[in-house]
């Protein structure tokens, strides 16, 4: 998990695509320096 968090911090902004029912959803995410906040939607 730590390796994944480090990777996301280095990426900066990235996108998470999901499906809600039959509707696609895409959210932009930002890696944070504080691993407790990494991946939160902002």
Could you characterize the architecture of this molecule?
- The protein is α+β, with helices and mostly antiparallel strands.
- The chain contains 1 helix and 2 strands.
- The protein has a two-stranded antiparallel sheet.
- About 14% of the residues have low confidence.
What are the SSEs and their pairings?
Blueprint: H1 2-11, E1 13-20, E2 23-30
Antiparallel strand pairs: 1-2
Task: Considering the chains and any ligands shown, give keywords for the structure.
24% helix
Return residue spans where pLDDT drops below 50 for at least 5 consecutive residues: 34-39
Sheet-strand content, in percent, reads 35-45%
Structural class: alpha+beta
Termini gap = 21 Å
Trace the largest sheet across and list its strands.
Answer: 1-2
Helicity range of the residues? Answer: 10-25%
Number of helices: 1
Give a brief description.
The chain is α+β, with helices and mostly antiparallel strands. 24% of the residues lie in helices and 38% in strands. The two termini are 21 Å apart.
